[in-house]
Design a protein that fits this description.
Two copies of one chain form a homodimer.
Chain A: H1 8-32, H2 39-46, H3 50-53, H4 60-80, H5 88-104, H6 107-114, H7 125-144, H8 150-170, H9 181-192
The structure holds a DNA duplex (18 and 18 nucleotides).
Amino acid sequence: MKTKEPADWREARRRSAHDTIIDVAWSLVSEEGLAGLTLRDLARRAGITAPTVYAYFNSKNAIYDAMFGRAATEFALTMAQPYECDDPRDQLVAIANRFSQFCTSSPTRYQLLFQRTLPDFEPSPESFAPAILALEGVRELLVVYGISEARHADIWTALIVGLVDQQISNDPGGDRWTRLIEESVDMFITHSQPNRGSRKHDSRPAQTKGIST
Amino acid sequence: MKTKEPADWREARRRSAHDTIIDVAWSLVSEEGLAGLTLRDLARRAGITAPTVYAYFNSKNAIYDAMFGRAATEFALTMAQPYECDDPRDQLVAIANRFSQFCTSSPTRYQLLFQRTLPDFEPSPESFAPAILALEGVRELLVVYGISEARHADIWTALIVGLVDQQISNDPGGDRWTRLIEESVDMFITHSQPNRGSRKHDSRPAQTKGIST
DNA sequence: GTCTATAGCTGGATAGAC
DNA sequence: GTCTATCCAGCTATAGAC
């Protein structure tokens, strides 16, 4: 890498143009779908022409890769933010809620990050790295809160992913499944550590809404 | 509809050509991915030319629709097959295993049927109908086996779908998540009907493999 | 770095002869 | 119903002037 000092601001400027394009790309795919991204649209919305995009990215997949990288970083930052709960159970609920919030707030991002649906696209190791780290971080948290067995960690991820997936697929914008997170976490805790108590759940349909969503 | 009797075999012949094309289409997408289907490939593999496809289908989406319809029918047939268990718990396990088997045996079919990932494609009501019926059938079974609350049914679907989804996404061809079905079902039963007993699970990692998979 | 112009390709779909 | 030939639209990507 050239680390000449004088032209540093130039690099910064280039970086910001780079980032702007990715901004626009994200706003585009959130409207048209992941596969609906075209360089023409992207350029037009960014106020440049299609060939100019190639001044910043070598290919369309390089754009997807940068989008993936940003999403992975956002994911890492989101999940690593400190949790201000004392109770382990509340902590697990908070983790699940945060994950769910992250996914449902941008289904397209969820699709790019966690579902492999784009043909001919594989994220580069560099873009992938932050996501790996974040997932490992979550797993470590699980261990801290008593879920040490791999089997249980797998059930945990399946459970949370299942809630998110059903929410996005079958009730987009709603909360039919996300509102079941607390109850599901309690179910999981009761199963994985029967000694520790999980909170009781009454059988009435609705809980006070808006708590820690 | 013309219901002239004499040319009935002609209709049958046409139907079989129709079906053959869908056969080929399925074998193609299972290799190239759902979005990778092209009329040229399809025609070549079917031993005809691209325009001839239009003798049977009005558009590419009509092909997707027919594929969806077949998948939905297969799903309905699979799930409606009689369950030969006495124990309700075993029955739930059997349902989950059957669903899981259906999905993991053809991830592409799962993708078309349950995830909305194809842009500009919506299944027609006719193609959709069998899937709806099958899902209602499953839900009725759940009620029969004691899962009557809507909340619990939603948790059930999330749990099973989550296991399948993780299996397909993160361990295709393996059984890292599908082997957790029994344990997950027991967790669910314990939660949804604490009075009825679910089978015990020891904490050792592996269970005897190959049982009712 | 940004443009205009365009290459080069692939895809869905149609026309019309047989 | 099946073909050949072809249209037309859309895309990614490159060439080359400025």
